[in-house]
Amino acid sequence: MTLDSYHVDKELSWLSFNERVLQEAADKSVPIIERVRFLGIFSSNLDEFYQVRFADVKRRIIIDEERGVESHAKELLSKIQAKVVKLNQDFDHLYNDILLEMARRHIFLVNERQLSDHQAQWLKRYFRSNILPYITPIMLNKDVDVLSFLKDAYSYLAVQLKKEGEEPKYALIEIPTDELERFVKVPEPKGKRQRKTIILLDNIIRLCLDQIFSGFFDYDTVEAYAMKMTRDAEYDLTNEVEHSLLENMSESLDQRLTALPVRFVYQRDMPPEMVSKLIQVLKISDYDSVLPGARYHNFRDFIGFPNVGRKYLENPLLPPFESADFQLQNNAFDAIRERDILLYYPYHTFRHMTELVRQASFDPKVRSIRINVYRVAKNSRIINSMIDAANNGKRVTVVVELQARFDEEANIEWSRVLTDAGVKVVFGTPGLKIHSKLCLISRREDGVLRDYGHIGTGNFHEKTARIYTDFALFTADQPLTSEIRKVFEFIENPYRPVKFNHLIVSPRNSRRRMYKLIEREIEHAQAKRKAGITLKVNNLVDKGLVNLLYKASNEGVKIRIIVRGMCSLVPGVKGVSQNIKAISIVDRFLEHPRVFAFENGGERDMYISSADWMTRNIDNRIEVGAPIRDPRLKDRIMAILEIQFSDRAKARVIDKAMSNAYVKRGNKKKIRSQTEIYDYLKHAERQELKNAEKLQHDTPPVKG
């Protein structure tokens, strides 16, 4: 049997990951409001799955048909459809269970048929004043090209207007969640203050259909049914030389609006003739996913479901804390110059990063700032500091990734704002995404330029830094900062020869370096020296790397993996991967860092990286991995990983069956790694402060 038999299709593995998200919604130990929000995360994930991964499978089928070859993708598509149907059924049952759980806590999510007369009248007035101005029905007739305006993954109400003896009329109403909150709190009658009633915007519109259509159309009955359409999110970038990348990206965003659908979800009691009409106007093909569903779609809005009840109904706050290394110095530059600093978000505050660039924006010693951004917050303090720095006469270069999926429009707008402020904006090369997380600040000190660098696993994004776990390394180590400078030069001139001795940089040397590091562990194992590999990644699907890990396993290298999402590797197979164990952790924070540790005969090498072990990240993107040199920081990262490997609350076993079984607790202490890590790091930072205070107290004053 070939090694290909031991590669799980990445699409099925991704659906298995989303099943783990659904497990969190089902977990009764999770506070009820958080369970509702996990339903939203599951739904949002599934939208992206269809936009990207399902669309890719469909594309492969079409290409294989044109080439006249047998397509494995057809069989894969069938498996995907079956899995999604099962997940959606589980979702619907779980949603109903959660509604009952909320009702037991006096929180009621109601529809338009469950209102008292007083509440219905209040909502009709509310609709006229607050919602109606945002409602414009689109009538479905031969003059309307639905695909030209229908928004991807938005919720719509498909409306049927019927009059006896006439053909029914159809219309679409967009649920205006861009303008309005989707959840509306309804006033309670006197004496029922403990009760909290919430209604979806969708149901307010259903209640008030007559206010929309009456006086314009003659009908006997009007009914509304939920529907949602998902498009292929791939780009069709033109290669015309005279077009800039910015122009191409703007065109591709327009093209996305007219990209063909890959999924159509409709309310299961929608009349059959209405379903047929929508399938026709949406140009749904035999390879697209057509799914009957419940009364509500676009559950991604449930990520922001409000807690109208008591505090215990959602997770207790874990306030981020400060790094002792930064606290003990007068400014960020003194702190980084003293020694390398490692932050782990969201446990550490992201304020250290925003404070670094704020200080750099006005520090008279700072000459230049370079940073590359993939995703940034809506009101980004990082970007604002770049503008402030330019206003203060600093040379500022911002590399903006225009191809950051689903953030392209925001990044195009940021690039224009920066350019108008006098910032040098670099877009990189079409087809080569820049996914690295770098910042380089040059400062004149004692007559020479000194560089201060940042290399991270996560984006410069204030919001996600509160909900994603990520490592950030701050360093003034000249071998590293000089190579960060080389990366920025490489971004601007990707075809100029460049060599990296310390950083692992895609697509220049990542595959070669990763292969060499794994092969070195094989050599250590063969020589009976200490050998082992510890990985933490979001996705592990690159066939070359997976096969080399199989080889290492067969040579006796012990391999431990924490993988959040897709994993094509199959652990624990005798003769293939018997020395490999893998787990996945899904909890309140999204696990996002990439860490690679190699035992190296007892002299451990460790890297943090922006790159997952996917072919695109290794060969087709600009990614950067950095060695962790400071033994103190190595120990800290390893301690964090060991806590995660000991998780007996949120860790699932990765296996061939994709069973998502929880790691068995046995008689061991129940450890929830994310809260355990919070306590560990908070204690470590306090200890650093105490040690510094003790050192200061024990050091005699210098006599002048």
UniProtKB/TrEMBL annotation:
Residues 119-305 form the Polyphosphate kinase middle domain. The active site is at H435. It catalyses: [phosphate](n) + ATP = [phosphate](n+1) + ADP. Its EC number is 2.7.4.1. Residues 332-495, 503-674 form the Polyphosphate kinase C-terminal domain. Its cofactor is Mg(2+). Mg(2+) binds at R375, R405. SUPFAM superfamilies: Phospholipase D/nuclease, PHP14-like, PPK N-terminal domain-like. The keyword Signal does not apply. Residues 8-109 form the Polyphosphate kinase N-terminal domain. GO terms for molecular function: kinase activity. Belongs to the polyphosphate kinase 1 (PPK1) family. Catalyzes the reversible transfer of the terminal phosphate of ATP to form a long-chain polyphosphate (polyP). This is Polyphosphate kinase. It comes from Salinivibrio siamensis. The lineage of its organism: Bacteria, Pseudomonadati, Pseudomonadota, Gammaproteobacteria, Vibrionales.
